[in-house]
Predict the 3D structure of the following.
Amino acid sequence: MPYHWGPEPTLTPLIVPHPAPNVLDRRIAVAPMMERTDRHERVLLRLISRHTLLYTEMVTSGALLDGASRRALAHSFEERPLALQIGGSEPHAMAACARLAGEHGFDEVNMNVGCPSDRVQSARVGACLMAEPERVARCVRAMRGATSLPVTVKMRIGVDERDSYRDLAAFVEEVAVGGCETFIVHARKAWLHGVSPAENRTAPPLRYDTVARLKQDFPELAIVLNGGITTLQAARMHLRTFDGVMLGREAYRNPYLLAHADRLIFEDPHPVPTRVEVAERYASYVAQQLAHGARLTHMTRHVLGLFQGLPGARAWRRHLSEHAHRSGADVTVLWEAIRKVSGAAVVPAVWPPVLPSVPGSETGVTDA
């Protein structure tokens, strides 16, 4: 007999400070993740939460300006609020990318100073720049001069042996002088040698106290905490100290954890969509994208964790994994998977979804 879910668990709303007027609301965000936060994933997350700030995958300044990664600019206004993350170290190139971000309707442009991958180090991108605060400050200054968008920096609390609080504070102070007012801080230092990026996700230990001290010493700056946060309850707790919280891989593995963010964090009382409703609306999006040449597996891979931990989740994952890659597979595969967890016939929903209007969004449609 099909399992029917009752109401989702309820939580008591927590009153957290509102951002200043006309400032992008960063209280809850999902981190930029390579091969994960593409435009299909962002649509899925937006169907779950209207207000969570989303980020693109990182794109290097060279690839963006050469045209090889111009697809990274493709998005639709339904994904907003949305930030473009860029990796680079040359001020003129970063300025040109920031200008593109503004022209293509993004809400923020972010500089990556936290990625420990050896693939980007060779291009002078990512966490290696923690050792060059003056260069990062020059990039930020050039970006600020090229766009009216907020220019933010995503960083670590240190890199290799350069991991004292004095080094961290000096970095933030230098880059703030360059014009950065928002720092997204991963509370774990980056190891560039001897430890793989995968290992660096869990070691060395997180140091939330170091990031809290940073907020205490720089109260005029917006400090967003990142690293190891896997529940909305934990995010709510950290919002008592920080201006925002950024969720990472857990939001990809279990996207529905964002379902109550709008009500509990952003005080938006709109009805929370059920997982089946999210899946139905996403299926309608998939049908639209297939008609424009998108590949089914590029979209179904993002929803594998939608029913995580619930009865039927294994059948959901198995059906998508076994059928989506087959020749001639279409959106029917997704509708069949939905029926396995809903236990009833489903009717395709309308795309695009009804979302709150975003000022200026009518000029930001750049879907490809």
